[in-house]
Design goal:
The protein is of the alpha/beta class. The protein has 11 helices and 14 strands. The protein is globular and about 55 Å long. The protein starts with 5 loop residues before the first strand and ends with a helix. This is Putative dehydrogenase.
């Protein structure tokens, strides 16, 4: 990555900004957080950002600053298209929190805007940057594990009604765009898809359990055909008390690999084994930002490096769009099955 200090702006200083602010503090030698957009609670925003960061409710004031080369969009999902589109039109490289937006059509429009303006669009799907996940990708790409024979992804998370879904807009299509798949499990699904690819959704179920009162789903399951034709299974919920870390299990020709939270364990058929230890916390529970910022730091380094080096970031808009399309297909087929 270049040693040049990169001028950036953080658009949104709500709960979703917390790991970004922690990461940016770590990267302060190479990144200058010049602005923060706060359309409500400006005093709270000023307390959260460095003293040198200017806080404003005026997006155009930020975009008019020629020293701002990149922005991070950390506002609610339903605002992403309008805010990111303005930044892209101003020539700012844009890193957007997941999901791209609340509908597939809006997500596709956002990716199209980035292409039209010729600037980078990255998406905050940071699970790809955990050391265990990166080692698993290396092993798959090198052929050390052999061909994937089957894959199972479980996201057994917990969100309470009182502490999470009772808050305004949560679990609604208008604010979030979806339930457990698009809002919580999207990180694990994106990692899963990036590792094994998905050719088809064979069948799916979605439901809202009696545990929650919400518009969208808190349970989803799917039978999948992986990119190489092998079978796959996905189960995700926010109704499994008290919740535990997501688990990805790959049965391969020469080994079985298990990624639980951030920890990778590989057992080879010849008796060898290897492990990469990682964080157990992953976002389950009502304290939604109670996890290490390390993966955000790695994602930021990659995105800012992409800006400096003129290369695509690891998680492009197109990659995030492919994950959104998979989720949309699971939801659509689940609704059709229930009709």
């Amino acid at each position: 990555m270049s040693t040049k200090t990169l001028g950036i702006a953080l658009l949104g200083v709500g709960p979703g900004s917390e790991p970004h602010l922690q990461s940016l503090a770590t990267l302060a030698d190479s990144v200058d957080l010049r602005w923060a957009l706060a359309r409500s609670n400006p005093d709270k925003a000023r307390a959260a950002v460095p003293p040198s960061t200017r806080v404003t409710a005026d997006l155009q004031e930020i975009l008019a600053d020629p020293l701002v080369e990149a922005v991070i969009v950390a506002t609610p999902a339903y605002t992403h298209l309008e805010i990111a589109a303005a930044a892209l039109a101003a020539g700012k490289h844009t890193l957007v929190e997941k999901p791209l937006d609340v509908t597939l059509a809006r997500a596709e429009e956002l990716v199209g805007r980035a292409t039209a303006h010729g600037v980078h669009l990255g998406v905050v799907l940071q699970h790809r940057f955990r050391p265990g996940a990166q080692r698993l990708k290396q092993l798959l790409d090198s052929g050390a594990l052999g061909a994937v024979q089957s894959a199972v992804l479980q996201v057994p998370w917990w969100r309470s009604q009182e502490g999470y879904y009772a808050k305004a807009g949560r679990g609604t299509l208008a604010r979030d765009g979806g339930g457990v798949l698009l809002t919580q499990a999207i990180h694990a699904i994106d990692l899963f898809r990036s590792l094994v690819r998905v050719r088809a959704v064979v069948a799916s179920q979605i439901a809202t359990t009696a545990i929650h009162t919400m518009e969208t789903e808190d349970f989803a399951s799917a039978l999948l055909t992986l990119g190489n034709g092998a079978p796959g299974v996905l189960v995700a919920t926010t109704a499994m008390y008290p919740g535990r870390a997501e688990v990805l299990e790959l049965v391969c020709r020469h080994a079985t690999a298990t990624l639980e939270g951030g920890t990778l364990r590989v057992q080879y058929h010849d008796g060898r084994s290897e492990a990469v230890e990682g964080e157990a916390k992953s976002g389950s529970g009502d304290s939604i930002m109670d996890f290490s910022p390390d993966a955000h730091i790695a994602l930021h380094r990659d995105f800012f490096g992409a800006v400096a080096e003129g290369r695509p970031p690891t998680v492009t808009g197109e990659e995030a769009l492919a994950t959104h399309r998979l989720i949309e297909q699971i939801v659509r087929q689940g609704k059709e099955r229930a009709a």
